[in-house]
């Protein structure tokens, strides 16, 4: 290791760092000569991709901090001025969640835009990510930045970029922005306007409550049943995030008076004191929600993640027990509900991802709706919806990804956990009026379109050695795809790296199985993990109790998972 060169790079960065806290942090690391820590902080610049930036807070170019955000914003501003002629008229929206340093990072973002002559439409208080996405369209802004790390642990923060069409950026925008960032001067030389200077020049515009009110009106208009319920009991958790007040108001306005918040998690708190990992999918994250639901005998539990762009759902089964629905089950419920109960459209269009269940596609074909599968990430869903509408006149009505992301209609062009929670409550009230339940409705769908069960397994492999192992596993499955998995024949192999399926190249491999199942593997885009997605389809026999069919399906799914993980170990995955 060239420690002299590393020290020189670190000292140069420290001197250009505009934040005294991270300056002192880096000085402390240098004083201790902690070369391993320094090497990690300076291994690379935090990569700007199609999700923007996301990383651990701290000093150095491979961390999230004020220096990185100032340089990133300068690059984004200059790219916008080079590619969007009216950006200095339309401006850029700036929103933030309630995480540590989110306020400072958002203020730096607005200050840089203002100094570049681009009006910054700034939310003065924390807002859900979908509110920022909505504001792009509502204000006809040229772009937006949302400072958030979504459902990552408290030591993270991030920087998400939206284009003027309201969707997250996709190539070539991400590459162009990254190239512009690389040319930006050191952080302490990036021009800034203070809030007072920006306001005086009309370049820092604090957004009024009218924007949030317009968002609430837009999601209230997504309901299909529209009658609410005085008897349906709902428990809601904000998971220490920014969705609490928004969801509470939306549900009240929609006619659901029996909504009980999880009090310990309702207020924004970037420390996330009751959960280590504030993701509703993580073990233990829903424990307080479950306890509250049992105390008030709730029929339905709705959970947002900290920036309120995701939704988790629990509902009672036939035995009265609360059961967590998978992301695919919620997607199937909402998709079928919108297609069958929504306004009849000539060419309704639904979209999901290549790692989500294939069942939405079967439903779409059965109901004569247009359907697409796209790469992982809601940016692809939104952009595909816009593309088909422009080219073919289809009308986008619903999109989802299995990682708890859903959007109904076009109020936002990103996943919306608050809007989805409202439509799920509307669906539950409709079910109640029909004399059934949410899970009873799901059974109706599964009896017609098949019982699809799925699971995901993540293997964490940190560091450079882990990244090398992940690459080796992916290449091994490409070079030698299995002929069968657990005794089930592989009927097709799709390597998305080659652009198969008509999609942009992506490091994903999928094995279609005889009978309708699928195994898909890909590296995570934001964490040091390789992800495996499994799906099995079972057809219940006529008159067969669905729990019996589900038990059989789950057993077959478990066998499929075991067989595939054994193959992965043969190809280099640690035991």
Structural account:
There is one protein chain. With 575 residues, the chain is α/β, with parallel strands linked by helices. It is built from 19 helices and 21 strands. The strands form 4 sheets. A 6-stranded mixed sheet has the order 1-5-4-2-3-6, with helices on both faces. A 6-stranded antiparallel sheet has the order 16-21-20-19-18-17. A hairpin with a 3-residue loop joins strand 14 (395-401) and strand 15 (405-408). Helix 1 runs antiparallel to helix 2, helix 11 packs parallel to helix 16 (417-433) and helix 13 (327-341) crosses helix 17 (438-449). The longest helix is centred in the C-terminal third of the chain and has 25 residues, at 546-570. It is globular and about 75 Å long. The two termini are 31 Å apart. The model has no long low-confidence stretch (mean pLDDT 95).
Count of runs of 4 or more consecutive helical residues: 19
- Main sheet characteristics: 6 strands, mixed
Strand content is 15-25%
What order do the strands of the largest sheet run in, or round the barrel if closed?
1-5-4-2-3-6
